[in-house]
């Protein structure tokens, strides 16, 4: 999710924007959910996150495959998968603990059941086994497992591209069609046949679309006026077909909405979601080109900072969203309260992003200031080799070795 070697402010900005939307969407019974992008079209912030992650992965891992060979490229991908795996387990335990604590403190609310985690606590031994084998994936915790499995497919796609980039499309398309017919479903619960909410063999289509753009396998979309008008018209038509207050009030719009529902399926990543996201991405790209300086201004800096630290920010948002929901349960959901609580949550994402960047800088590894060096003056001098016990002459017959001693003067 993070760590491109050549930072693109557009990539970081839209990935950061997705993190903000995901937080708002994850807060239970959040009134702001009515205004997130998913309410006005088939695609939502998840598509933005997956596409940007694919683009970033091409920048991050593509260089490793090219410079250090296929073996080290695979090793780096597996290392990232390992990090995501443990991040997923840690997030589950943290959110589950917060649910237990909130239930005990509130007394009148069952946050464990609200997240549908009570089967895990009813059979903890069995639950742990299925949790660590990723055969137990509750709905709230389904993004990281999906991303992990998609990322594990990178070596396969890179290997196909090495034979010829044109092979990538049939491989990704074949996996997409296979899962659409139920051939690649992964179990999400041990007590039912429910599959993962995000099928990774479906969502890989969008991930590797971003990867292909990032790797240069696909050219940048052309600047055509007719294409701009077509994508804009498509996005506008999707608004009345997706906005519930409108399609539920107009009979023929409601019928059209239900007809298109299967094409917008989120588990199998319906093709309508794919086309809608690509249209939005094209419009966003053209919009950014009109004002490229907007992404380098102060207003965009917090969003870009969040996008640069997507994994730690996402993990925090999963925990934070549940706590914000508990606060709203206690304080009520009046407009001002909702504004303050959401504002604090969004601000915390920026704080976590900056803290993560500070920790990655590892300031403690930097050299001590000159003032400290002066307090303990060490001097480098040349001394005769014979003066050092056990000293050896170098191969060139040198008569001196470099010695270091502390000046006492």
Q: What does this molecule look like?
A:
The radius of gyration is 27 Å and the shape is globular. The chain folds into two domains: 9-365, no CATH class; 374-406, no CATH class. It has 409 residues and is mainly α. It has helices at 9-26, 45-68, 70-106, 111-114, 118-122, 124-132, 143-152, 154-163, 168-180, 200-215, 225-242, 244-247, 251-260, 271-290, 301-308, 310-331, 335-361, 370-375; strands at 378-384, 400-406. It is built from 18 helices and two strands. A two-stranded antiparallel ribbon has the order 1-2. α1 crosses α17 (335-361).
Short description:
The protein has 409 residues and is mainly α. The chain has helices at residues 9-26, 45-68, 70-106, 111-114, 118-122, 124-132, 143-152, 154-163, 168-180, 200-215, 225-242, 244-247, 251-260, 271-290, 301-308, 310-331, 335-361, 370-375, and strands at 378-384, 400-406. A two-stranded antiparallel ribbon has the order 1-2.
Count of folded domains: 2
What's the story with the biggest beta sheet? 2 strands, antiparallel
Tell me the total number of β-strands.
2
The 3D shape can be described as globular
Task: Provide mean pLDDT, rounded.
Answer: 88
Q: Evaluate the radius of gyration.
A: 27 Å
Number of helical regions: 18
The largest beta-sheet arranges its strands as 1-2
